[in-house]
Design goal:
It is a single chain. 33% of the residues lie in helices and 24% in strands. The protein has 604 residues and is α+β, with helices and mostly antiparallel strands. The strands form nine sheets. The protein has a 15-stranded antiparallel sheet that branches. The protein has a three-stranded antiparallel sheet with strand order 30-31-32. Helix 12 (546-559) packs antiparallel against helix 13. It is globular and about 75 Å long. Keywords: Hydrolase. One of its GO terms (molecular function) is hydrolase activity.
């Protein structure tokens, strides 16, 4: 079975809009290390925040289907579509077929041989393959929920568009003759076999704007493809599923915010966890949990530079502010939650900026940072004395605070003694002791950490096990299960027999089709949480249940093969439709870790 996601599986249906919206699996992601654009299967770029991932969107049709901004290059005739990423690249290729011909669109957020450009450059190459295909073009900047009124002006020979502090150009080759108005650019062109047209947006904020020749932009599409392939060649995974592994690694690379080293949880805000529901969140920030797991995934991929940059950023934030759940991409406090007056994806509201988790406390951050430090050191690296001091202070805090209630990994509104939070505290102190024994941390408090580690283990076994469920439960006094407890196997928590029984109970209570819900009682509000299924596959592999592990992984990746290899946070277990923000880093990194464990055990 091919799991490399070569083309969209639904070639006939891709590109059709429901309620003005494309299916989320019909989007591919483009990025340059600073921002991410989402390109739909009908040729419309419906999401792009300029210049940064967390900037206000220049294009926001994703959340405002009628009035939102977009940059569409779409065949004038009815069409079918096949899509893929170029091999080992984040350059996206779409093949449009109409009654009169066939044309290929190649899209890139351009970089150059020296790395990321000091401006945003979104390039689209349209080539005729056979016959002829006419395209209509619309470039319409978004109004930012009526907070901005885009306009255009002529500066020299250039038509320039303005959206608040963003300045941009629509550049193009000679075959396209645009009609400009304040609100949009319209036009059309035709490509015949062997012909090509180039369209590109060059934009910046509060800075002079470079006007590159169109031939240079065209060349940089190929340069960007080569730079992605050069990076992918360094990914140190040699298994049979290497193409699948590299695709998820490339998706994670899109979320690494190069100006600071932060790792965004996802590139979007407010894509619903259930259509029409209210579970809509802004994930364009850096969670300690997601950053820690992503660093481990980069290390598993052999991407040492990315792992080091992200780990250094994370340690600096913890040193400055102490343990927080999440940060802005520049390391500041996440802004308070604010609703935006737009319709939302398929009418799902609210649309929000900011995140309410910014002031929560989650014990999981202790485990996440120490597991990251442990993995960093196990790859042959060394902690500096300042980082060691920061980690020692965090271990002391964990030893003091583990008996308190918290919001849990799932950021729940009711504070409880969540089992997974206690496991995370056990994990933190277990790794702290190991780091101290290895000479990486001061040993002054080593014995105290070991005693508290053992107390936590005893508390979990005494309070969090249910004989009724034959499983560890969400928290003491509850009979609900929590799929994140599959991670306890990776963390090395003792009681493997109980963990094996817990996995069986999770499959029974939380399994749905090829996927799993996060915890009991959410089935009516949201889809299945994709990372949980990959965690289950990894856990079964670590427990020696290889056949069940492969079956879990294969069922999930087959169901997710509807798109081009970009995963969301959740999916509908019945229809397979993608749900939630995308690309979702936690999903991709869980996929990487599952593949890494399974193929290592298989000897690939």
């Amino acid at each position: 079975m091919d799991h490399s996601f070569p083309v969209a599986a639904r070639a006939q249906a891709a590109g059709q809009r429901t309620d003005g919206c494309l299916a989320l699996e019909d989007y591919g992601a483009l990025g340059d290390g600073r921002s991410v654009a989402l390109s739909g299967a009908d040729g419309s770029i419906d999401w792009w925040c300029v210049p940064n991932l967390d900037s206000p969107p220049l294009f926001d049709r994703l959340l405002d289907p009628v009035e939102g901004g977009r940059f569409s290059v779409t065949p004038e005739e009815p069409f079918t579509v096949e899509r893929r990423y170029l091999p080992d690249s984040n350059v996206l290729e779409t093949l449009f077929t109409t009654a009169s011909g066939q044309a290929r669109v190649t899209e890139s957020m351009n970089s150059d041989t020296a790395g990321r450009l000091p401006w945003a450059e979104l390039a689209r190459r349209v080539e005729g393959v056979r016959g002829q295909v006419g395209f209509r073009v619309e470039m319409r900047p978004g109004r930012r929920a009526s907070a901005a009124s885009p306009y255009h002006s002529c500066i020299g020979k250039h038509h320039v568009f303005h959206v608040e502090r963003v300045l941009g150009l629509l550049l193009h080759s000679d075959g396209f003759k645009p009609d400009w108005s304040d609100e949009a650019v319209h036009g059309h062109f035709t490509v015949r076999a062997g012909q090509r047209e180039i369209l590109a947006i060059v934009a910046g904020m509060d800075e002079p704007l470079v006007v590159p020749p169109i031939a240079e932009i065209d060349r940089r599409i190929d340069t960007s493809d080569e730079e992605w392939r050069t990076w992918a060649r360094l990914v140190g995974h040699k298994g049979q599923r290497r193409a699948e592994f590299v695709r998820s690694a490339l998706a994670l690379k899109l979320l690494l915010f190069s100006p600071s080293g932060a790792i965004a949880a996802a590139a979007t805000t407010s894509l619903p966890e259930g259509i029409g529901g209210g579970k809509n969140y802004d994930y364009r920030y850096a969670w300690v949990r997601d950053a820690g797991y992503t660093i481990k995934a980069f290390l598993a991929a052999g991407a040492q530079a990315e792992a080091k940059a992200a780990f250094s950023w994370l340690l600096e934030r913890l040193r400055e502010t102490g343990p927080r759940v999440c940060y802005s991409l520049f390391g500041d406090e996440v802004p308070p939650l604010r609703e935006i007056d737009v319709p939302g994806y398929r009418g799902s509201s609210p649309v929000v900026v900011g995140n309410q988790a910014r002031h929560q406390h989650q014990h999981g951050i202790y485990g996440d940072i120490f597991e990251t430090a442990s993995r960093f050191v196990s790859c042959g690296n060394i902690l500096d004395s300042r980082s060691a001091e920061t980690l020692s202070r965090l271990a002391d805090q964990c030893a003091d605070r583990w008996r308190q209630k918290d919001a849990g990994l799932w950021e729940l509104s009711e504070a409880e003694h969540y089992t997974m939070s206690k496991v995370s505290c056990w994990q933190a102190l277990a790794r702290a002791v190991e780091l101290a024994d290895d000479g990486q941390l001061p040993t002054t408090c080593r014995d105290r950490w070991a005693r508290e580690r053992d107390r936590i283990e005893s508390w979990i076994n005494s309070n969090c096990w249910s004989e009724v469920k034959r499983a560890f439960v969400l928290h003491p006094g509850s009979e609900k299960l929590d799929a994140s407890l599959a991670l306890a196997v990776r963390f090395g928590f003792d009681g493997r027999d109980r963990l094996a029984l817990t996995l069986d109970a999770i499959d029974q209570d939380l399994g749905a089709g090829p996927f799993h819900y996060r915890y009991g009682g959410v089935e009516q509000d949201e889809g299945c949480f994709l990372a949980c299924t990959f965690w289950m596959a990894e856990a079964r592999a670590l427990l020696g249940q290889k056949d069940r592990a492969w079956a879990t992984l294969d069922a999930a990746t087959t169901a997710l093969g509807r798109g081009v290899g970009i995963f969301t946070e959740m999916a509908d277990p019945v229809t397979g439709a993608y749900l939630g923000n995308l690309p979702q880093g936690l999903t991709h990194l869980a996929h990487i870790m599952a593949l890494n464990v399974l193929e290592e055990q298989q000897g690939c």
